[in-house]
């Protein structure tokens, strides 16, 4: 592990997995309940790391290319291939955080195979993924869950391809978790966010 003067990385609690599993919501609930410091990967990756992505030549999202012209398999493969480089930037952020209680870091780019070597125990890692039915329900009923970041020539095809890309990336997180002995929590919408947070808190021993 690279230099970490405050030991933040070894104490961090990690929530990773698939898009729209409730990772951010659960992290925020537990941060308020337990006085933790929440780190939201997606926010920093899309904003704070943008200049680093450009300088490093990491491909930026292009909705037309990713969801219309290309296949979900190739798009998922590109995303997964880029995660290790982007993870290093997240670690830079986390090394700078000091908290009297653990940091809880969440995001789909915090892959099990990347965080397990840093954590002291696999109990510090949890993979959350939505069931396929719940993900489709969200896309159909929640405006933000069904919205694309850019206009595309074929919105229906783009939405189908994006959902399939998300499924493939979530499945990869599950595969990795099972190989490493990390717990997987499937979210199907039958429990509200507070109830899911109860399960996550119990897993982390909070």
Textual characterization of the structure:
- The chain has 206 residues and is an alpha/beta fold.
- The model has no long low-confidence stretch (mean pLDDT 92).
- The protein has a five-stranded parallel β-sheet with strand order 2-3-1-4-5.
- The chain is globular, with a radius of gyration of 17 Å.
- It has one domain: P-loop containing nucleotide triphosphate hydrolases (Rossmann fold, 3-Layer(aba) Sandwich), CATH 3.40.50.
- It is built from eleven helices and five strands.
- 33% of the residues are buried.
- α6 crosses α10 (155-180).
- It comes from Saccharothrix syringae.
- This is Dephospho-CoA kinase.
- InterPro entries: P-loop_NTPase.
Précis, in short:
InterPro entries: P-loop_NTPase. This protein has helices spanning 8-11, 23-34, 41-48, 50-56, 63-69, 72-95, 112-115, 132-141, 143-146, 155-180, 193-204; strands at residues 13-17, 37-40, 103-106, 125-130, 183-187.
Q: Top keywords for this entry?
A:
206 residues; alpha/beta; Rossmann fold; five-stranded parallel sheet; 11 helices; 5 strands
């Amino acid at each position: 592990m690279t230099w970490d003067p405050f030991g933040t990385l070894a104490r961090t609690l990690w929530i990773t997995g698939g898009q729209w599993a409730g990772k951010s919501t659960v992290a925020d609930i537990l941060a308020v309940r337990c006085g933790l410091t929440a780190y939201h990967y997606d926010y920093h990756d899309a904003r704070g790391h943008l200049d680093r992505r450009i300088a490093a030549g990491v491909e930026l999202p292009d909705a037309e290319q990713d969801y219309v012209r290309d296949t979900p398999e190739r798009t998922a493969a590109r995303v997964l291939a880029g995660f290790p480089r982007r993870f290093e930037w997240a670690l830079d952020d986390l090394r700078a955080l000091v908290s009297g209680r653990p940091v809880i870091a969440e995001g789909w780019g915090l892959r099990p195979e990347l965080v397990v070597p840093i954590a002291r125990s696999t109990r510090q890692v949890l993979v959350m993924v939505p069931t396929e039915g719940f993900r489709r329900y969200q896309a159909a009923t929640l405006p933000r869950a069904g919205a694309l970041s850019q206009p595309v020539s074929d919105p229906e095809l783009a939405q189908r391809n994006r959902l399939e890309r998300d499924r493939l990336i979530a499945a990869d997180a599950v595969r990795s978790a099972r190989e490493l002995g990390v717990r997987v929590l499937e979210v199907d919408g039958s429990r509200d966010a507070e109830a899911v947070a109860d399960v996550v808190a119990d897993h982390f021993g909070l």
